Amino acid sequence: MENKIREIRKEEGIKQYILAEMTGLSEGYICHLEKGTRDNPSYKTMVKISRALKRQVQEVFNIC
Q1: What is the rounded distance in angstroms from the CA atom of residue 12 to the CA atom of residue 38?
Q2: For position 38, which CATH number holds?
Q3: Which residues contact 4 (CB under 8 A, 6 or more apart)?
Q4: d(CA 50, CA 52)
Q5: 57 pLDDT exceeds 90?
Q6: How far apart are the C-alpha atoms of 48 and 53, rounded to whole Å?
Q7: How far apart are CA 64 and CA 52, in angstroms?
Q8: Which domain holds residue 32?
Q9: Residue 63 has pLDDT above 90, yes or no
Q10: How far is 63 from 20, CA to CA, in rounded Å?
Q11: Cβ proximity of 52 and 22 under 8 Å
Q12: Entry pTM
């Protein structure tokens, strides 16, 4: 699943470790999602990340 986590995170000026703290996810997991080496996050995870980035889930994760 393609996503825009890194792009939006950088636009917002948020470091990876800060996003990890904001979502309760590990920095390593965030890194893997951004690189695409880990995919299919749960909907709950997508919501956490999207809320932290102040975006809709569909915008961050390119889903319909």
Answers
A1: 23
A2: 1.10.260.40
A3: 59, 60, 61, 62
A4: 5
A5: yes
A6: 9
A7: 20
A8: 5-61
A9: no
A10: 22
A11: yes
A12: 0.92
Number of domains in the chain: 1
Residues with Cβ within 8 Å of 16's Cβ and at least 6 positions away in sequence, in order, are: 9, 27, 30, 31, 34
What residues have CB less than 8 Å from 56, skipping those under 6 apart? 50
- pLDDT tens, position by position, 21-56: 999 999 999 999 999 998 889 999 999 999 999 999
Give the largest Cα separation in the chain, rounded: 29
pLDDT digits (tens, 9 = 90+) for 12-21: 999 999 999 9
pLDDT level of residue 2 (50, 70, 90 thresholds): confident
For residue 18, the tally of other CB atoms under 10 A from its CB is: 15
